[in-house]
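thought: fold this chain, then report.
action: predict
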Amino acid sequence: SGARSWVGPVASASAMKFLAMPAATVLMAFGLGLHGPALTTAVLFQVLPTASSAYILARQLGGDAPLMAGITAVQTVLALVAMPLVLIGLSAFVPMG
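observation:
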Protein backbone atom coordinates (compact mmCIF):
# COMPACT_ATOMS: atom_id res chain seq x y z
CA SER A 1 0.00 0.00 0.00
CA GLY A 2 2.98 2.30 0.53
CA ALA A 3 4.07 2.05 -3.08
CA ARG A 4 0.50 2.74 -4.27
CA SER A 5 0.52 6.05 -2.43
CA TRP A 6 3.62 7.02 -4.43
CA VAL A 7 1.94 6.84 -7.84
CA GLY A 8 0.90 10.49 -7.81
CA PRO A 9 4.22 11.94 -6.62
CA VAL A 10 6.27 9.67 -8.89
CA ALA A 11 4.11 10.51 -11.92
CA SER A 12 4.25 14.21 -11.11
CA ALA A 13 8.03 14.24 -10.64
CA SER A 14 8.52 12.22 -13.82
CA ALA A 15 6.23 14.46 -15.89
CA MET A 16 8.15 17.50 -14.72
CA LYS A 17 11.48 15.81 -15.42
CA PHE A 18 10.71 14.37 -18.84
CA LEU A 19 8.17 16.86 -20.26
CA ALA A 20 8.25 20.25 -18.57
CA MET A 21 11.99 20.63 -18.04
CA PRO A 22 13.01 19.76 -21.64
CA ALA A 23 10.27 22.02 -23.01
CA ALA A 24 11.36 24.91 -20.78
CA THR A 25 14.97 24.31 -21.80
CA VAL A 26 14.10 24.47 -25.50
CA LEU A 27 12.21 27.74 -24.97
CA MET A 28 15.06 29.26 -22.98
CA ALA A 29 17.62 28.03 -25.51
CA PHE A 30 15.69 29.71 -28.31
CA GLY A 31 15.65 32.92 -26.29
CA LEU A 32 19.42 32.69 -25.86
CA GLY A 33 20.01 31.84 -29.50
CA LEU A 34 21.26 28.30 -28.90
CA HIS A 35 20.94 25.79 -31.71
CA GLY A 36 22.60 22.65 -33.04
CA PRO A 37 24.78 20.59 -30.72
CA ALA A 38 24.57 23.13 -27.88
CA LEU A 39 20.77 22.90 -27.85
CA THR A 40 20.84 19.11 -28.06
CA THR A 41 23.29 18.89 -25.16
CA ALA A 42 21.25 21.25 -22.99
CA VAL A 43 18.04 19.31 -23.61
CA LEU A 44 19.70 15.92 -23.05
CA PHE A 45 20.99 17.05 -19.67
CA GLN A 46 17.41 17.87 -18.68
CA VAL A 47 16.20 14.40 -19.66
CA LEU A 48 18.72 12.54 -17.51
CA PRO A 49 17.07 10.70 -14.60
CA THR A 50 17.22 12.04 -11.08
CA ALA A 51 20.61 11.54 -9.45
CA SER A 52 20.92 8.66 -7.03
CA SER A 53 22.46 11.07 -4.52
CA ALA A 54 18.95 12.51 -4.06
CA TYR A 55 18.08 9.38 -2.08
CA ILE A 56 21.07 9.87 0.21
CA LEU A 57 20.15 13.51 0.76
CA ALA A 58 16.54 12.61 1.49
CA ARG A 59 17.64 10.02 4.02
CA GLN A 60 20.19 12.25 5.74
CA LEU A 61 17.93 15.30 5.85
CA GLY A 62 14.86 13.46 7.14
CA GLY A 63 12.93 13.41 3.88
CA ASP A 64 10.91 10.57 2.41
CA ALA A 65 13.83 8.35 1.39
CA PRO A 66 11.68 5.39 0.20
CA LEU A 67 9.69 7.73 -2.05
CA MET A 68 12.91 9.21 -3.42
CA ALA A 69 14.21 5.71 -4.11
CA GLY A 70 10.99 4.98 -6.02
CA ILE A 71 11.27 8.19 -8.04
CA THR A 72 14.90 7.45 -8.87
CA ALA A 73 14.14 3.87 -9.95
CA VAL A 74 11.14 4.80 -12.10
CA GLN A 75 12.93 7.73 -13.74
CA THR A 76 15.95 5.58 -14.54
CA VAL A 77 13.71 3.14 -16.42
CA LEU A 78 11.69 5.92 -18.08
CA ALA A 79 14.88 7.60 -19.27
CA LEU A 80 15.56 4.59 -21.49
CA VAL A 81 12.48 5.58 -23.51
CA ALA A 82 12.41 9.34 -22.89
CA MET A 83 15.92 10.14 -24.09
CA PRO A 84 15.53 8.70 -27.60
CA LEU A 85 12.01 10.16 -27.90
CA VAL A 86 13.21 13.62 -26.94
CA LEU A 87 16.04 13.39 -29.48
CA ILE A 88 13.62 12.29 -32.18
CA GLY A 89 11.21 15.08 -31.27
CA LEU A 90 13.96 17.63 -31.14
CA SER A 91 15.27 16.66 -34.57
CA ALA A 92 11.75 16.65 -36.04
CA PHE A 93 10.55 20.00 -34.72
CA VAL A 94 13.66 22.09 -34.18
CA PRO A 95 15.97 23.14 -36.99
CA MET A 96 19.47 21.95 -36.11
CA GLY A 97 21.36 24.10 -38.58
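thought: worth noting. The mean pLDDT is 91.
final: C-alpha coordinates above.
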